[in-house]
Design brief:
With 292 residues, the chain is α+β, with helices and mostly antiparallel strands. The chain has helices at residues 3-22, 152-159, 189-193, 204-210, 288-291; strands at residues 32-33, 36-37, 57-60, 67-70, 75-81, 85-91, 94-96, 106-110, 114-116, 121-126, 130-136, 139-145, 166-170, 177-184, 197-203, 222-229, 231-232, 254-259, 264-269, 273-275, 283-285. It has three domains: 1-81, no CATH class; 86-229, no CATH class; 231-292, no CATH class. It contains five helices and 21 strands.
Length: 292
């Protein structure tokens, strides 16, 4: 075999491998909506295209480009990652005394297998004397408060969100249901100076890069936020020490990581492989040239 023929065969194998690894959805299912890839266990179309109803995605073709929505929580999908995160457009719902916005002091979250990411998302409050907090089963489990000094807008910009006109807190990990509340702890001069208060979940990386002044968020309807997701009511094959076989939930050439407390799991490709670990043959080897 000539060198040219050998190189052509290697190129063809790499192309085929890349094509297989790029397969993200189930056969016959729509894998993309607008500019967003929709990998399994998420899916568009019939019930066989997604794991269960919580992972169903609808594609709104009336917009340009079309926009995908996570049907179970009615949020626009911005990006899906097979590492267990999904980025969504989350509404800025909590507000008090803000011109042009209805007062809404409480927001419920019942997200099925989705929780706001403890790593990437921050619960943020802006305004004077704002008190933002989480509750679960009538118990406060986290929150933050703001104070104001002199010019609130300048203070917030210069100090970012460290309590002066703007505060942030991490979301408790794995919080599948909770109530977010926005209150006030003062009705004195600071409240008269800046009566508008609002709170929101936000992707911290996006917030730092795109919002030099937190007070501009009050004019936004949505901000990006990151959700964590896992496959619940499922466990890995214990007989293989979490390394799955073809009979377990994950596909071939994958590692299955389980959380026995929540009966949930997440799949990942083994080293040297890439693709979708939730499909039967979704993880393809990437070291064929080295093996030659």
């Amino acid at each position: 075999m000539s060198t040219v023929q050998w190189l052509l065969q290697i190129s063809l194998l790499l192309w085929l491998s890349k094509g297989l690894a790029a397969t993200q959805g189930k056969p016959g299912c729509q894998e993309r909506c607008g500019d967003v890839d929709i990998p399994y266990p998420f899916g568009i179309g019939s019930a066989g295209c997604y794991f269960d109803e919580w992972f169903e995605v609808t594609c709104n073709n009336s917009t340009h480009p079309p926009k995908p929505f996570l049907k179970g929580v009615n949020l626009e999908v911005l990006n899906v990652s097979l590492d267990g995160t999904i980025r969504v457009n989350n509404p800025v719902l909590l507000s008090r005394n803000c011109s042009g916005k209805p007062s809404n002091h409480t927001q419920w979250w019942e997200g099925g297998p989705f929780s706001f990411s403890n790593t990437y998302t921050r619960f943020t409050a802006v305004g004077c004397s704002a008190l933002a907090y989480f509750m679960q089963n009538d118990t406060v489990i986290g929150g933050c408060a703001t104070i104001c000094q002199m010019d609130v807008a300048i203070t917030a910009k210069n100090a970012s969100c460290y309590g002066l006109g703007c505060c942030q807190t991490q979301v408790p990990p794995g919080l599948l249901s909770f109530t977010a509340n926005l209150g006030t702890y003062s009705e004195v001069s600071a409240d008269e100076q800046e009566p508008c208060k609002y709170a929101f979940m936000v992707d911290q990386e996006w917030f730092i890069s795109n919002v030099p002044d937190p007070h501009t968020v009050k004019d936004m309807e949505y901000v990006p936020a990151v959700l964590d997701w896992r496959i619940y009511n499922a466990t890995c094959d214990a007989s293989t020490s979490n390394l799955n076989t073809s009979t377990s939930f994950c596909g071939e050439n994958t590692f299955c990581s389980t959380d026995t407390q929540t009966s949930s799991l997440i799949c990942s490709c083994l080293p040297g492989h890439e693709g979708n670990p939730y499909l039967p043959q979704g993880c393809q080897g990437t070291q064929s040239t080295e093996d030659c």
